Amino acid sequence: MRAALSFVLLTLVACGGSDNRPAPVNFQEPPPLWNEYTVDYLTTLNLAESVSLEFTMVEEDTRCPPTTQCVSPGNARILLTYFTPRGTGTVELNTNTALPISALFDYYGVELRNLDPLPAVVGTPIAPSSYRARLFVVKAATPPG
Length: 145
Description:
The chain is mainly β. The termini are far apart. Helices cover about 10% and strands about 40% of the residues. It has one domain (about 30-140): Sandwich (Tick-borne Encephalitis virus Glycoprotein, domain 1). The chain has 1 helix and 8 strands. Strands 1-8-7-6 form a 4-stranded antiparallel β-sheet, with no helix packed on it. Strands 2-3-4-5 form a 4-stranded antiparallel β-sheet, with no helix packed on it.
């Protein structure tokens, strides 16, 4: 074990080169704001400016299946947890446009554009892990400073 560790250490030192420059690091920029993203249930979307959104919960899903004629389109209400450099909180968004489909948080905004899948049969629950939310995220204001 000790010999293997010494060999790995010697190999790393030998590959370092003679110009003493560190090896290049490829940084990937976080995805920008002012864009649409699809986020799975219990997944966190990490964006530019250290903004993150987690699809935390489906609080209600009374939407009408596409093959059924319903009196009302119903509604699905989701909870998102946001994380910014200035704090953490939650927002609720709805699929029914008669209710809030967008919300402001900190200096940012988010809109729920779609929630999949639709129910197959009225009253039949959907497994939470199946949900995917399509969100549009914007920078709504510039922080003072």
